[in-house]
Design brief:
Elements (H helix, E strand, L loop, with lengths): L1 H24 L3 E2 L6 E3 L4 E2 L9 E7 L10 H11 L6 E5 L11 H10 L6 E3 L4 H6 L3 E2 L1 E8 L2 E8 L15 H10 L14 E2 L8
């Protein structure tokens, strides 16, 4: 009887371990990644506002982070390059504006105007969208592809491998991912470590 129980436990453990491994290998596929957030132009924006889009570059960024300040020009370039191909860039600020007043909505509007953002810059005041995506740092980029009505995260992490000196960047992670997807190929590097300032998530009672 004991041997039977032991054998059953082992089989259960092996099945559970296999299921866990499988779950980590499967891409995040869900329509729940969509959002409805306020843009700096005063209009609400969601992924469903782009019915002809093939995918999106979603970048969680902010005003105050020194590392995030290095990327607006590159984000403009990414949007210029890929929006005509059906892959627009959308930036989202999800930082705690109680801790970082610089990230308030009025300051977002001023920054977008001063730096001539050519992409939406949305405020995720409740931080719910950042939590859905699992965003950790600023900037943290996600390449999201639209497949049969669902949104599939195909890449997440850094935009490239050199924040300080863009001309010296050797691996353009986001661009490489989008290029591969546009050609119907698999993304070779699906995840990297995002570098920058940690997104400070408020406690639920704050």
């Amino acid at each position: 009887m004991n041997q039977f129980r032991l054998r059953s436990f082992r089989l259960f453990f092996l099945a559970f371990a296999a299921a866990c491994l499988l779950s980590f290998s499967v891409e995040k596929t869900t329509s729940a990644l969509d959002f409805h957030l306020l843009n700096v132009n005063g209009k609400m924006v969601s992924l469903k506002d782009y019915p002809s889009a093939r995918g999106f570059i979603v970048v969680f960024t902010c005003n105050h982070c020194p590392f995030a300040k290095l990327y607006p020009e590159r984000m403009n370039q990414l949007n210029n390059r890929y929006k005509p191909l059906g892959v627009p860039l959308i930036a989202i600020s999800s930082t705690d504006t109680i801790v970082y007043e610089e990230d308030g909505f009025k300051n977002m509007v001023a920054k977008a105007t001063a730096e001539k953002f050519n992409f939406p810059y949305l405020m995720d005041g409740a931080q719910t969208v950042a939590k859905k995506f699992g965003a950790q740092k600023t900037p943290h980029a996600f390449v999201v592809w639209k497949i049969k009505g669902d949104f599939v995260v195909k890449y997440n992490g850094a935009i490239d491998d050199n924040g300080a000196e863009p001309e010296k960047a050797k691996i353009h992670y986001v661009a490489n991912a989008v290029d591969a997807l546009l050609k119907g190929k698999e993304v070779e590097i699906k995840e990297t470590k995002s570098l920058g300032c940690q997104i400070h998530y408020r406690k639920q009672n704050q």
